[in-house]
């Protein structure tokens, strides 16, 4: 690779980021600017920012690599990403989030829930959960971004970690939500262009759409030979029903991440940044296409990398990449793509990591500053923006320390990235999704029910993580220490915690609603003002 | 179909494209909706800006 060209591209990229961060800073004057970008963001910027936040490096490299193993069945995740993550999220939740957020003058996701259910405690607890759990997800993104920067630019890991976090921290702390969304839109555009080039190249180099798929189908015996025992039937077929591979693919990858996206605080808050309802409808158009070009292309490329490597080296992708799933996509880019694209792709991955991280910093900071300190503990320092800035610095330091410490406890660095992401998605969905749905569609749902489902979701998730789901319970070791076994329920050991926690959380919400006092009509009338039905 | 081995993957591939098309069609059809609320939304926005307790003086 041409290092001068790469250096030029990196400098150009960072200069634009610095400029956009500065623009955000100059335009931020009030708390609403800092937390919600003044609620006047263009729908196109909002859609791309939502997509770029949603899609991190691990979605492209990690899950793209997973597609090289599981095959094209992973595309079910893309279907959910688009249909649930964009269509349902925007149409059934976005419009109401924006309207109700306005009615209740909410600035954050926990504040929206707290005011809808008239419970300051709910806002405080929600903020605290985000502040405590999100650093794991943020640390996973930092780890991925810093590792990647360190290998690409040949600098020590510690240096790249500080530089990577420092740049993002700068524009998030200074520019607030405006800084985050302007840079997201730029980063999202780079990601879109890069993935489009990748899609065209992969199909043209493997002989066209149907020809490429047919070649991949013909390689099925290679997959069955290695993973047949676990249920693999080839890269263009689903694994055998209920086999270990099927459970992992369907529950953890497809459902875990696909449904978990609905109650992500850093995404929900974006619905409140646009001026009116129809702007959200316009954003659906751009959001759907954007996500298809992200995970859709990454999964197709990951699976088809098998054809490319088999034709070139006689090995399938995983073996060509030295049995490292996360190395498959980068290796394919290096081998199959022109030299200039390697540099562009590096910026793409950096953009994907930065756009996700910036929103995580912003969400953690506002959760700790606005929801926990300011509204929960009634802390008053100078003004609201200062509280949020200080909280953001605390959250950034916390996640960075975690990113420094995690590899010391857990050697398989790459596995942490996917695990950290999956744990956070599952936890958020189990704790927040039932009350998020209830907030908009069940006026009868009470604060007691919301809180009960919140605790039930967290409780079952943690129990499943520590005692059942072997992927986490084994490395954590607490189950083994107490009971001498890695999992208490072997038959459920491959099921994602979300699959157990979400139903419990939903049932708790429904049952408690019928046995508790309904919310006051005054709060309901205020929250549902101008919301149909 | 499309060179795939089974219907499960074929549906996922087609489903990806169909989902994106649904988003595009929805976006175009509802480009200016919900229109009926637009006026009230603008009023609400003005009201909100006027009453926003956290807006510092001289910001508007």
Q: Summary?
A:
Chain A has 533 residues and is mostly helical. Chain A is built from 23 helices and no strands. Chain B has 60 residues and is mainly α.
Structure description:
The complex is a heterodimer of chains A (533) and B (60). Chain A is mainly α and 533 residues long. Helix content of chain A is 78%, strand content 0%. Chain A has 23 helices and no strands. Chain A has helices at residues 3-26, 31-36, 43-54, 57-70, 75-103, 109-116, 120-153, 157-205, 209-218, 220-227, 244-260, 265-268, 277-313, 317-320, 328-336, 339-376, 384-409, 413-441, 447-468, 470-476, 478-483, 497-514, 521-527. Chain A starts with a helix and ends in a 6-residue tail after the last helix. In chain A, 62% of the residues are buried. Chain B has 60 residues and is an all-alpha fold. Chain B has helices at residues 7-29, 38-51. The longest helix of chain B has 23 residues, at 7-29. Chains A and B meet through α5, α9 and α13 of A and α1 and α2 of B.
């Amino acid at each position: 690779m041409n290092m001068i060209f790469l250096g030029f591209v990196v400098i150009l990229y960072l200069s634009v980021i610095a400029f956009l961060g500065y623009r955000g800073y100059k335009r931020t004057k009030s708390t609403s600017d800092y937390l919600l970008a003044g609620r006047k963001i263009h729908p196109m910027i909002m859609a791309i920012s939502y997509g770029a936040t949603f899609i991190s490096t691990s979605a492209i490299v990690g899950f793209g690599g997973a597609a090289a193993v599981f095959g094209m069945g992973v595309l079910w995740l893309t279907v959910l990403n688009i249909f649930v993550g964009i269509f349902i999220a925007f149409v059934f939740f976005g419009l109401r989030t924006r309207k109700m957020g306005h009615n209740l003058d909410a600035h954050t996701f926990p504040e929206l829930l707290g005011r809808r259910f008239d419970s300051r405690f709910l806002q405080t607890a929600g903020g605290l959960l985000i502040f405590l759990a999100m650093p794991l997800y943020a640390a996973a993104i930092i780890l991925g971004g810093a590792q990647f920067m360190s290998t690409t630019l040949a600098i020590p890991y510690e240096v790249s970690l500080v530089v990577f976090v420092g740049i993002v921290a700068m524009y998030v702390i200074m520019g607030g939500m405006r800084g985050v969304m302007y840079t997201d839109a730029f980063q999202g555009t780079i990601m879109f262009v890069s993935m489009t080039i990748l899609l065209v190249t992969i199909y043209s180099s493997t002989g066209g759409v149907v020809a490429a798929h047919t070649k991949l189908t013909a390689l099925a015996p290679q997959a069955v030979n290695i993973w047949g025992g676990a249920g693999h039937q080839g890269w263009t077929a689903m694994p055998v029903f209920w086999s270990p591979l099927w459970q992992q693919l369907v529950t953890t990858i497809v459902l875990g991440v696909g449904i978990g996206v609905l109650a992500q605080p850093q995404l929900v808050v974006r619905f409140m940044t646009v001026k009116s309802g129809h702007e959200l409808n316009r954003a659906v158009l751009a959001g759907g296409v954007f996500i298809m070009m992200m995970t859709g292309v990454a999964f197709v490329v990951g699976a088809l990398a098998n054809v490319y490597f088999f034709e070139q080296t006689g090995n399938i992708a995983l073996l060509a990449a030295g049995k490292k799933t996360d190395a498959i996509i980068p290796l394919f880019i290096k081998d199959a793509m022109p030299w200039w694209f390697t540099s562009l792709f590096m910026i793409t991955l950096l953009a994907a990591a930065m756009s996700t991280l910036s929103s995580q910093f912003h969400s953690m900071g506002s959760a700790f500053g606005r929801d926990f300190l300011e509204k929960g503990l009634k802390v008053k320092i100078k003004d609201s923006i200062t509280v949020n800035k200080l909280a953001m610095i605390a959250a950034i330091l916390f996640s960075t320390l975690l990113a420094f410490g995690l590899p010391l406890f857990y050697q398989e660095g790459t596995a942490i990235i996917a695990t950290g992401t999956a744990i956070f998605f599952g936890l958020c969905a189990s704790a927040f999704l039932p009350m998020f749905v209830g907030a908009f569609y069940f006026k009868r749902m009470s604060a007691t029910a919301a809180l009960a489902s919140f605790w039930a979701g967290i409780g079952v998730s943690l129990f499943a993580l520590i005692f059942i789901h072997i992927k986490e319970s084994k490395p954590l070791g607490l189950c083994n220490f107490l009971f001498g076994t890695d999992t208490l329920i072997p038959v459920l050991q491959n099921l994602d915690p979300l699959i157990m926690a979400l139903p419990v959380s939903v049932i708790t919400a429904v049952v408690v609603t019928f046995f508790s006092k309904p919310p006051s009509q005054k709060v309901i009338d205020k929250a549902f003002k101008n919301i149909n039905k | 179909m499309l060179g795939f081995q089974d219907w499960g993957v074929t549906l996922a591939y087609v489903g990806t494209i169909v989902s994106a098309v649904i988003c595009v069609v929805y976006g175009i059809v509802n480009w200016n909706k919900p229109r009926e609320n637009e006026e009230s939304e603008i009023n609400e926005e003005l009201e909100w800006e006027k009453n926003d307790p956290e807006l510092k003086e001289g910001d508007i």
